[in-house]
Amino acid sequence: MAAYILRRLLLIIPTLIGIMLVNFTLTQFVPGGPIEQIIARVQGEGDALRNITGGGGEAAQSSEYAGARGIPPELLDQLEVQMGFARITCSPAHQGEPDLKSPECSKEKIGAAERFLVMMGNYVRFDFGTSFFRSISVIDLVLEKMPVSITLGLWSTLIAYLISIPLGIRKAVRNGTPFDTWTSGAIIVGYAIPAFLFAVLLMVLFAGGSYWQIFPLRGLTSDNWADLSLWGKVKDYLWHIALPVTATTISSFATLTLLTKNSFLDEINKQYVMTARAKGLTEGRVLYGHVFRNAMLIVIAGFPAMFLGVFFGSSILIETIFSLDGLGRLGFEAAVQRDYPVIFGTLYVFGMLGLLVGILSDLMYVLVDPRIDFERRAG
Questions:
Q1: What's an example Gene Ontology biological process for this entry (predicted)?
Q2: Do 346 and 330 form a contact (C-beta atoms < 8 A)?
Q3: CATH number at residue 162
């Protein structure tokens, strides 16, 4: 098993490089980079794409950025250097720090290949740089948004497992009965409703939209959070997360419940279950003493991947509807603003975590069923 884990760990390196290379290459063809975004802000316009696709007027001299009307070329040069698209090179006669104002210094463009290598070199040391637009390091920015993602991911995953597994077992035991039929219908309806639409429905019904003002409309905590007792903080926290967690969880019930049901049905019909029943074992002993471990293999082993998917796949719509500032909104805003340090820094971290979770899922398989030997299969 150790050799298998080592091979999987070594495979992370080329896989992660491939992920970063593909996404870095794609960004080279996307119009409206971070400098265009700054130009749009300076000129009081919110749409950088409109600036780069035309809009009248002439661009500043020595500038390749369309729409840079009235922007000094010196400022554009400084922005390119600051954002890593160019460097300052000086002659040996220059004294002191490199400065574009000095006649001995000039701007030198940095090619895409070199920028990628420099970025990956920094990421290996877990140096993800600073956001272009927030003046805060990428690590600090992610940690700042993490509580929202932890809330949605952790609670949604736990609630889904706590409800779906018993429900799936019950449906398998009572397969074909009216209980199985109407619960399947309810699950499919819940799965078919988009999460953001269900979130709006919850707001209308329970957050003062048109009916009852039971739950708060926004945020994770109240304004007087610091003044509350420990128990008061717990109640306030649960009070705020009730609606967004419910909206996030609703769509995950169907897959997990039906997966549990089908796994149990597959095991219940096997020969060893019939043998156990023939020996006179109670139905509960057969179900939870023999069937449960085998049937739950795929369900339990998939927990890490499911948690990561919910944890780092925070819905931008859910966060926007409930005014939650999490990783979902962070990723969306970074993509819109072309905030490359945030985009690639989070992609690198989450990509690495996703690959590690794949290994963890394999270990979960072995933990649940020691008969599985990935090393032998790989050989």
A1: transmembrane transport
A2: yes
A3: 1.10.3720.10
Place of tokens 């090393």: 375
Indicate whether 97 belongs to any domain: no
Reply yes or no on whether the pLDDT at 52 is more than 50: no
Residues 180-237 have pLDDT tens digits of 899 888 888 888 888 788 888 888 888 776 677 788 777 777 778 778 888 888 888 8
Identity of residue 222: S
How far apart are the C-alpha atoms of 157 and 163, rounded to whole Å?
Answer: 10
180, 171 contact by CB (below 8 A): yes
- Quote the domain boundaries for residue 152: 139-378
Match 């997990």 to its residue by tokens: 256
pLDDT at 354: 80
Q: Where are the alpha helices (DSSP H) in the chain?
A: 2-27, 34-42, 48-52, 73-82, 112-124, 138-173, 178-192, 195-206, 230-249, 252-268, 271-278, 283-286, 292-295, 297-301, 303-312, 316-321, 327-337, 340-368, 374-378
Q: What is the spatial distance between Cα 345 and Cα 120, in angstroms, rounded to a whole number?
A: 10
User: Which DSSP letter does residue 56 get?
Assistant: S
DSSP letter for each residue of 238-279: HHHHHHHHHHHHTTHHHHHHHHHHHHHHHHHTSHHHHHHHHT
Structure tokens at 312: 């780092």
310 or 86: which leads in pLDDT: 86
Backbone angles phi, psi at 256, to 5 degrees: -70, -40
Q: Which residue has the tokens 């074992």?
A: 281
Residue 346 lies in a domain: yes
Residue 223 placed within a domain: yes
**Distance spanning both ends of the chain, measured CA to CA:** 11
Residue 125 lies in a domain: no
